[in-house]
Write a structure and sequence with these properties.
This protein has about 500 residues and is α/β, with parallel strands linked by helices. It is about 40% helix and about 15% strand. Helix 9 crosses helix 11, helix 11 runs antiparallel to helix 12 and helix 12 crosses helix 13.
């Protein structure tokens, strides 16, 4: 069996960096080199301040960097020396041409394929790690076949990642499954076995699934689509709960105890974000349309539509509660990453809520413990967010390094990311500094256990999937002798 001794990973982002760092730690006899055209990113991987935040990642990198884990910008040399090449580059949604707004842009994948075939000799396994549309491996193989050399033998595999940001290191070390797809030819099976041998250093064989290439690629898209669907489903129920007086947390618990359904991904919120869910669902929609399956495409498009509806609905609720106008009002927005324990802001709901509030002229004071100021400004300055007017971002947005400073003289406090620290803030101190009435809009249900305390302080609370009722004034029976018609309700005591 072919033995993999040297691995090259093209792309030092959220997938390539953590994946190859864990492989290096778990396989000390394998030399792993992560390469990228971004020199600044590579310098960061070689420094004490990594370019991405992920719990436990720094310890993994430091345990093997300089030993069998290396970060470099010398892409040709790393490819040439490797037995296995991972392609972990970005596959963003196209912003132009055919498939705009839905199809995956594979220009970086194609560029990698051409570079690999140009500098390679001998036998090499090329593995797509990026999330790619079905049959992308076929495109890579066609490029290889069209540029083949007598001394070259390239095998193409699909090995999609199933990482959740914030738990990526744990997901890599204790995966639910490792999926490897390849050709059903002897050469393809040989390549699959070689990659299986790498993962078998720490992953039980029972958790390593082998399929054909197309099943592997589609499984990745389908997995993310199903997860996104669950979030949109519970968010749709949250709107119903707010209209009826039910509590979506109680509903989620009740249905989650059904073993056929399960409790995972039934947390109502301001909507899903991140680099994968929206991109992969849109990719699936485009694939269905291209294959003349309009009903299937329409079904999955609703997952995206519901997510957008949830974001807009939450922003409208803020505006409605603040007396139907937020123009010139200071609003503290706590949390900008798309989820806790990561600094990733891609497709974060915070971006879109900020957009809707900026459209109404609100002055936003934004705090996030891990997202850098320049990243926040960059995200909000994108043409689709800033309405082609980046100047309004400098006028309406202030990024702070202190949550208490963000809340100073604010009309409302909006929680958009479920950072644990937001449960532990001194809300009495915050209330004293805010304008009255002081509102809290909890878009992540992180303050459920504090509702009574916050109301006693004086906050008006609005949350996802629940009507938070004010503390009721006790009913005092009428004085004896007072006649009350049996068909009329008792007169309520007026509030002081």
């Amino acid at each position: 069996m072919f033995e993999i001794k040297r691995i090259c990973c093209i792309g030092a982002g959220y997938v390539g960096g953590p994946t190859c760092s864990v492989i290096a730690q778990m396989c000390p006899e394998i030399t792993v080199t992560v390469v990228d055209v971004n020199e600044t990113r590579i310098k960061a991987w070689n420094s004490d301040t990594l370019p991405i935040y992920e719990p436990g990642l720094k310890e993994v990198v430091e345990s093997c960097r300089g030993k069998n884990l290396f970060f470099s910008t010398d892409i040709p040399s790393a490819i040439k020396d490797a037995d296995l090449v991972f392609i972990s580059v970005n596959t963003p949604t196209k912003t132009y041409g055919m498939g705009k707004g839905r199809a995956a842009d594979l220009k970086f994948i194609e560029s990698c394929a051409r570079q690999i075939v140009e500098v390679s000799d001998g036998y090499k396994i090329v593995t797509e790690k990026s999330t790619v549309p079905v049959r992308a491996a076929e495109s890579i193989r066609r490029i290889f076949d069209a540029n083949t050399k007598p001394s070259l033998n390239l095998q193409v595999l699909s090995n999609p990642e199933f990482l959740a940001e914030g738990t990526a290191v744990r997901d890599l070390k204790e995966p639910d499954r490792v999926l490897i797809g390849g050709d059903e030819t002897p050469e393809g099976q040989r390549a699959i076995k070689a990659l299986c041998a790498v993962y078998e250093h720490w992953v039980p064989k029972s958790r390593i699934i082998t399929t054909n290439t197309w099943s592997s690629e589609l499984s990745k898209l389908a997995a993310n689509a199903f997860l996104a669907q669950r979030i949109s489903s519970i968010n749709s129920i949250s709107a119903l709960c707010e209209a009826t007086g039910a509590d979506v947390e109680e509903v989620a618990k009740a249905i989650g105890m059904d073993q056929r359904i399960g409790s995972k991904f039934l947390k109502a919120s301001v909507g899903f974000g991140g680099s994968c869910f929206q991109k992969d669902v849109l990719n699936l929609v485009y694939l269905c349309e291209a294959l003349n399956l309009p009903e299937v495409a329409s079904y999955w498009q609703q997952v995206i539509d519901m997510n957008e509806y949830q974001r807009r609905r939450f922003a409208c609720r803020i505006i409605d509660c603040l007396f139907n106008t937020v123009t010139g009002k200071k609003i503290a927005l706590l949390g900008f990453s798309f989820k806790k324990d990561t600094g990733d802001t891609r497709e974060s709901s915070s971006i879109y809520i900020s957009k809707y509030l900026m459209d109404e002229g609100a002055k936003l004071f934004i705090y996030d413990p891990k997202v850098l100021k320049q990243q926040i400004i960059y995200d909000l300055s994108q043409p689709s967010i800033s309405e082609d007017n980046p100047k309004r971002v400098s006028e309406l947005v202030t990024v702070t390094s202190d949550p208490y400073e963000a809340c100073q003289s604010a009309h409302a406090l909006v929680i958009c990311t479920e950072w644990d620290m937001f449960r532990e803030l001194d809300y009495e101190k915050i209330y004293k500094k805010m304008l009255k009435p002081a509102f809290i809009f909890d878009g992540r249900r992180v303050l459920d256990h504090l509702h009574a305390e916050l109301q006693s302080i004086g906050f008006q609370i609005e949350t996802i999937g629940k009507k938070v009722t004010s503390a009721r004034i006790p009913y005092t029976p009428a004085i004896v002798g007072t006649r009350t018609a049996s068909t009329e309700p008792p007169t309520k005591k007026a509030k002081a």
